[in-house]
Amino acid sequence: MRERGASSGAPARLVVEAVGGLPEVQPGDDLAALIAARTALVDGDVVAVAQKIVSKAEGALAHPRPGESHEAARRRLARAHAERVVVDTPWVLITRTHHGLVCANGGIDASNAGDGALILLPDDPDASARLLRAGLAETTGADVAVVITDTFGRPWRRGQTDVAIGVAGMAALDDERGGTDRDGAPLEVTEVALADEVAAASDLVRRKASGTPVVVLRGLVRPSGRSGATALVRPSEEDLFAHGRGRLSARLREAAAGAAVGAGGAPTPWERDDLDALARSAGATLTAHPEGLLVRGDRLAAGLVAAGLADQGHGVAWREAPHGVVLLVDPAAWAGDDT
């Protein structure tokens, strides 16, 4: 159990406690009953539940095809469940799911799945949270909020943290716009991702190997709201970093200005220098190849260069090669390469 002191205006005490003793969840299990039997919930509690057991209870599982590796199956399923592919690299496939979540491999998990299964995201995590909240209310009589959590990486930051993908019984965002700071200045942009903070706090008292997928937070002031975790998803048209690394080539800048510029053509010196620098940063080198570029290095290095090409407006595919990874781009774009 961890306790966090709070500043003025926040609760004086926040208790975060893992719920132990849950069995291995199976498809069809009643999660509300399993949780209620192992903790005494009271009004105002927030119950953070790992996505994995929600998916298991709902039967959101898949298996590789005969002879298919887990990695290949996960990529295939991630594509099948994607709204769009953000970038496909040898290191990782990043997709935007139909929920609006941008994550690695479609959020499909292979750890602690059992029986060689892959665990998919719930079809509607907010609906799952609402159903679990209603079940807990019926079983315990307590008015609780439910936050379904999942582990995500974040652009430009190392490591993973838990975020909220489903919310019921509280606002996912605590909107402080219209208020003032301590100096009396108006708050114009402050929206606190409260449900994400709940998810991250819950992960402080559990680990993947601990078998404690449920955490109760007590003492949190819960702002009311019914928008669910979808309120946390930034619309694509507001995304200023749609190309991942945040850099746009001259070709893309010209296209944005209305010029009829395609993704083909020879790379500018700036583009090639950028790609070479990406390769060097991962201890790899680039050489020309009849199908595009050969990255002589590991798959992470190839992934960095592939992401750089995507930033520059190239459509990129890839395949393994004896001495590295071949990035399949227009070979004419690399004519005259002397590396």
In short:
24% of the residues lie in helices and 25% in strands.
Descriptive notes:
The protein is of the alpha+beta class. It is 24% helix and 25% strand. It contains eight helices and 17 strands. The protein has helices spanning 31-36, 51-58, 70-80, 125-140, 194-202, 250-256, 269-281, 299-311; strands at residues 2-5, 13-19, 46-50, 61-62, 82-88, 93-97, 102-104, 118-119, 145-154, 157-168, 174-175, 191-192, 214-218, 285-289, 292-296, 317-321, 324-328. Strands 1-2-13-3-9-10 form a six-stranded mixed sheet. A four-stranded antiparallel sheet has the order 14-15-17-16, covered by helices on one side. It is elongated, with a radius of gyration of 23 Å. 36% of the residues are buried.
- First-last Cα distance: 58 Å
Q: Helicity range of the residues?
A: 10-25%
Derived from helix and strand composition plus strand pairing, the structural class reads alpha+beta
Using the alpha-carbon principal axes, give the shape. Answer: elongated
Strands ordered across the widest β-sheet: 1-2-13-3-9-10
- Helical run tally: 8
- Low-confidence region ranges: 1-11, 244-253, 259-265, 335-339
Biggest sheet details: 6 strands, mixed
Number of strands: 17
What keywords describe this structure?
339 residues; disordered C terminus; alpha+beta; 4-stranded antiparallel beta sheet; elongated; 17 strands; 6-stranded mixed beta sheet
